[in-house]
């Protein structure tokens, strides 16, 4: 307990968020621990086992449930929900009606917004932008400067990397990799152990599956050979 400048008793509490004790307090709405360095609006719900620390900012009607963590310089706002054991960290921005749950991680400089879901063991990192009603699930990874939007689905052990884009109703799943400047849109499906790279564009109702162990670098050549 300390005495402030007005002679008022003020109880100072501390909590260990993983790197030693720091000044912290229980959030009035939910009772979760919030470091004094973090900024959490009164309208935000922080569940009793959830943590917000570092210089994180949580505002609006956002909710942090379960054992979820928001830390670093991350920002979570709007109606976003971070729950279960999910983590939002570093300089990540999560807002809108996004749901991040399971063991999912949104970190580094990633921006996630809209009505989408990031779940299970999915990782969204780098300078990526994931938006719309997209879904990133399983052990999927979206990183680099990649963009995933619309109703696109990235799942299983699939990866979208570098400057690649996946959008529309497109699905990338199994162990497929979309990288470089590749674009996958429309109703396209990329799955198996396929690797799509270079400046390849896949659009429409095409399905690209694992026809061999070699990466498919040139879509036009592959499509011509399959006829």
Task: Outline the secondary-structure elements.
Elements lengths: L1 E2 L5 E2 L3 E3 L4 E6 L6 E3 L3 E2 L4 E2 L4 E2 L4 E2 L4 E2 L4 E2 L4 E2 L4 E2 L4 E2 L4 E4 L2 E2 L4 E2 L4 E4 L2 E2 L4 E2 L4 E2 L4 E2 L4 E2 L4 E2 L4 E2 L4 E2 L4 E2 L4 E2 L4 E2 L4 E2 L4 E2 L4 E2 L4 E2 L4 E2 L10 H7 L2
Parallel strand pairs: 5-8, 6-9, 7-10, 8-11, 9-12, 10-13, 11-14, 12-15, 13-16, 14-17, 15-18, 16-19, 17-20, 18-21, 19-22, 20-23, 21-24, 22-25, 23-26, 24-27, 25-28, 26-29, 27-30, 28-31, 29-32, 30-33, 31-34
Antiparallel strand pairs: 1-2, 3-4, 4-5
Describe this structure in words.
It contains one helix and 34 strands. It is mostly beta strands and 227 residues long. A twelve-stranded mixed β-sheet has the order 3-4-5-8-11-14-17-20-23-26-29-32, with no helix packed on it. A ten-stranded parallel β-sheet has the order 6-9-12-15-18-21-24-27-30-33, with no helix packed on it. Strands 7-10-13-16-19-22-25-28-31-34 form a ten-stranded parallel β-sheet, with no helix packed on it. The longest helix has 7 residues, at 219-225. The chain is elongated, with a radius of gyration of 21 Å.
Classify the secondary structure makeup into a structural class. Answer: mainly beta
Determine the N-to-C terminus distance. 79 Å
**CATH level-1 class of the domain at 108-227:** Mainly Beta
Please state roughly what percent of the residues sit in beta strands, choosing from under 5%, 5-15%, 15-25%, 25-35%, 35-45% or over 45%: 25-35%
Choose one word for the global shape.
elongated
Q: Which fold name corresponds to the CATH topology of the domain at 108-227?
A: UDP N-Acetylglucosamine Acyltransferase, domain 1
CATH architecture of the domain at 108-227: 3 Solenoid
How much helicity do the residues have? under 10%
Most strands sheet = 12 strands, mixed
Mean pLDDT: 90
Radius of gyration, whole Å:
21 Å
Number of helices: 1
- CATH H-tier superfamily of the domain at 108-227: Hexapeptide repeat proteins
């Amino acid at each position: 307990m300390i005495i402030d400048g007005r002679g008022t008793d003020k109880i100072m509490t501390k909590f260990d968020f993983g790197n030693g004790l720091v000044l912290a307090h229980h959030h009035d709405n939910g009772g979760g621990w919030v470091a004094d360095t973090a900024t959490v609006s009164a309208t935000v719900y922080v569940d009793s086992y959830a943590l917000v620390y570092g210089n994180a900012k949580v505002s609006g009607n956002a909710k942090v449930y379960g054992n979820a963590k928001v830390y670093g310089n991350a920002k979570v706002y709007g109606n976003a929900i971070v729950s279960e054991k999910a983590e939002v960290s570093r300089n990540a921005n999560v807002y809108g009606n996004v749901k991040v749950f399971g063991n999912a991680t949104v970190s580094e400089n990633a921006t996630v917004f809209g009505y989408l879901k990031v779940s299970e063991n999915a990782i969204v990192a780098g300078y990526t932008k994931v938006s719309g009603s997209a879904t990133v699930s399983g052990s999927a990874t979206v990183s680099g400067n990649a963009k995933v939007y619309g109703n696109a689905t990235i799942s299983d052990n699939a990866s979208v990397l570098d400057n690649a884009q996946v959008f529309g109703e497109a699905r990338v799943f199994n162990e497929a990799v979309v990288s470089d400047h590749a674009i996958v849109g429309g109703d396209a499906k990329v799955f198996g152990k396929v690797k799509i790279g270079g400046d390849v564009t896949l659009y429409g109702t095409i399905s690209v599956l694992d026809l061999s162990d070699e990466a498919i670098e040139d879509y036009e050549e592959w499509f011509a050979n399959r006829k």
